Amino acid sequence: MAKKASKKAAKKSATKSAVKKPATKVAAKKATAKTGSSMGPVPVDSGRGATPFEIGKDLVTKFNAGKFEIDEIGHFSDAMVSCEGLGVGLEWRGRKAVDTKNADWYTKHKIHGASAEGPYVGSTGFSVKFNMDVEVKETGQRMAMMEIGVYTVKDGKIVREEFMYGTMKG
Amino acid sequence: MAKKASKKAAKKSATKSAVKKPATKVAAKKATAKTGSSMGPVPVDSGRGATPFEIGKDLVTKFNAGKFEIDEIGHFSDAMVSCEGLGVGLEWRGRKAVDTKNADWYTKHKIHGASAEGPYVGSTGFSVKFNMDVEVKETGQRMAMMEIGVYTVKDGKIVREEFMYGTMKG
Fold first, then answer.
1. Cα(B51)–Cα(A134) distance, integer angstroms
2. Is the distance from CB of A144 to CB of B144 less than 8 angstroms?
3. What is the pLDDT of residues B88-110, one digit of tens each?
4. For chain B, how far is it from start to end, CA to CA, in angstroms?
5. Residue A150: its chain B contacts at CB < 8 A?
6. Which one of B46, B120, B124 would you mutate to disrupt binding with A, by most A Cβ within 10 Å of its Cβ?
7. What angle do CA A108, A160, A113 make, to 5 degrees?
8. Which of A88, A122, A164 sits opposite B83 (nearest CB)?
9. Of A7, A107, A163, B100, which has the maximum CB count within 10 A?
10. Chain A residues touching residue B101 (CB < 8 angstroms)
């Protein structure tokens, strides 16, 4: 390990002068080490552990089997952030805060039907399109909800989810 | 303005001691100023200027009118990052690099049909589902491409796009 680290440091040092105005040391290292050019693309991934494809596929399979809860789905980091979109504009930070949000939602809503389409797989995470038939318990109002969940994966765990709401007329 | 800033500073100072182990000063300020609790949600947005809804709606409208190019769509920052997903795992950083990537793609592919569905609108950006009928020029192969584009908006400009690829069998 020490040898590897030392080799990396030497490489970084040797290539440093070839890079013009690096935004950060990490960016400079990636750009020079992998492409040799500041114009070329740089590799990006979600780290070690389960991939966005693996986690996304499992989430979609479980959701379509009626498993909607974080505990049933798994893969979520305790430090996860959950962000709600258009018209809400809030982030819940940490698993406890997210559990509170979700419990509150289930108190007020009943799911009559739900399906997940995906996963759509990126380099830093994945996204899933959800269709839900939801009842507002207090009023009895039924809503057809369409949204895309965008999930960021880091080292085999979902660290962030952002729900983006459909705005199209049905 | 000076009075307002001073009031904010005083509020921050007064509530500071009530927050346990804030992750950052900004997070602590937001949490205490807006919710009074470190467990409650914190506001998040895309800054000033055009909103994710406005930009997303315009992008979808233009795309469905056959305007696929960055220059035709507008709204992109010169410092934009473009990330390609599953199986590619690369980011192009800066408008020049992204233009090179896109020109290369058009050299190799022909679009026979394309449609955009959305926008789906979050707090930090928006997403769009794309369906494309694409021909690989060299081989004549036709592909049905399904992907979700996830766009991050900051101060009225798209600063990042990540293309996430459909993995479902059609």
1. 27
2. no
3. 999 999 999 999 999 999 999 99
4. 57
5. 122, 127, 150
6. B120
7. 40
8. A122
9. A163
10. 41
- Amino acid identity at A26: V
CB contact under 8 A, B117 and A84: no
Q: Which residues of chain A fall below pLDDT 70?
A: 1-38, 170
Asked if B166 lies within 8 A of A118 by C-beta distance, the reply is yes
Q: What is the DSSP string of B42-107?
A: EE----SSS-HHHHHHHHHHHHHTT--SHHHH--EEEEEEEEETTTT-EEEESHHHHHHHHHHHHH
- Look at residues B69, B107, B81 and name the one whose alpha carbon lies nearest to residue A42: B81
Contact B120 A84 (CB under 8 A): no
Closest residue of A to B148, CA-based?
A120
pLDDT at B38: 62
In the predicted model, is pLDDT for residue B10 greater than 80? Answer: no
Phi, psi of A89 (to 5 degrees): 65, 40
Q: How far apart are CA A10 and CA A23, in angstroms?
A: 20
Task: Name chain A contacts of B79, Cβ cutoff 8 Å.
Answer: none
Question: For residue A38, what pLDDT is reported?
Answer: 61
- For chain B, give the mean pLDDT: 84
- Whether residues A41 and B146 touch (CB distance < 8 A) is answered with no
| CB of B136 closer than 8 Å to CB of B109 | yes
